[in-house]
Amino acid sequence: MDQKERDFLVFVAKMCEQARRYEEMRDAMKSIIQVTGELTTEERNLLSVAYKNLITPKRYSIRVFTSFEERETENGNQTIAERIREKRLNSEKELKDICFEIISFIDEKLIPSATNDEGLVFYYKMKGDYCRYLAEFLKSDEKSKSIENSGESYKKGVEIGKNLSSTNPIRLGLSLNYSVFLYEILANHQEAFQFAKQAFDEARPHIDSLSDKSYNDTILVMQLLRDNLNSWAKDFEAQGDEDEDDDDDDTEELDEPNQKK
After folding, report:
1. What's the number of CA atoms in the CB half-sphere (13 Å) around residue 115?
2. Same-domain status, 211 and 93
3. Domain range enclosing 37
4. Cα 59 from Cα 126, distance rounded (Å)
5. How far apart are CA 233 and CA 189, in angstroms?
6. Does any domain span residue 188?
7. Residue ranges under compositional bias (Acidic residues) (predicted)?
8. Beta carbons within 8 Å of 131's beta carbon, 6+ residues apart
9. Measuring CA to CA, how many Å separate 261 from each of 17, 32, 46, 229, 258?
């Protein structure tokens, strides 16, 4: 693939993002990955945005269908519950296919081709996220394996991230999402709180020295970290650090990188 064709695919991805045609956006980025796994920062962000916008509505659908299925089952409406279950399973399959696809790209193309620590941290965070999304709905051995893969990916990213500045937004985004994994998936509430607090405290003294280029991205992630810390602290006070429901709507995570238009 020559540079002209590559630039055109990036243009198509940006256009499809604005048109909210995320499958076509994903396809444009896949065409680049299939030729070369080494992506620029812009291409990396476009890839992340495309997949995130594909899976977000499916994660939401699964939660809605699960809620309705449980309600109808409790009310004794087994026929209706079974029909809702079919919709839930269909959404789960769609989400599973998307997650497996991007995880495969990360393992086989993106991580082996990464040439700097920032890229590696980005991809390990991304893999950790998609394994976590699988862990939200898979059962038994599949769930356990997804949890294991998610934790391992986040930990690898954290280790490599030590080579980056404490204010690096990709490092902070990894810290944010790993703490969400610890809190929501593993229910290690105190560990999640301490990990997020350490990331926040290490970055805070250096905010004033940030360049204009990274300031907004860094501040965004730090605000999300602070929101989680405040929410979790209130939970500790109210419930004495008792286990929460898995579906914690107050917990924030970094969904996607900011796109520079």
Report:
1. 7
2. no
3. 1-124
4. 16
5. 10
6. yes
7. 238-261
8. 99, 103, 146, 147, 149, 150, 153
9. 11, 20, 11, 31, 9
Nearest-5° angle of CA 71, CA 75, CA 78?
90
Count structural domains, the chain: 2
Taking the C-alpha atoms of residue 215 and residue 219, their distance in angstroms, rounded to an integer, is 6
Q: Can you give the pLDDT of all 261 residues of the chain as single tens digits? A: 789 999 999 999 999 999 999 999 999 999 999 988 789 999 999 999 999 999 999 999 999 999 999 999 999 999 999 999 999 999 999 999 999 999 999 999 999 999 999 999 999 999 999 999 999 999 999 999 999 999 999 999 999 999 999 999 999 999 999 999 999 999 999 999 999 999 999 999 988 888 777 888 999 999 999 999 999 999 888 776 454 444 445 666 766 554 333
Is residue 177 packed enough to be buried (19+ CB in 10 Å), middle (13-18) or exposed (0-12)? buried
- What is the rounded CA–CA span in Å between residue 24 and residue 17? 9
Tokens of 33: 């990955």
Which tokens sit at 161? 């991230």
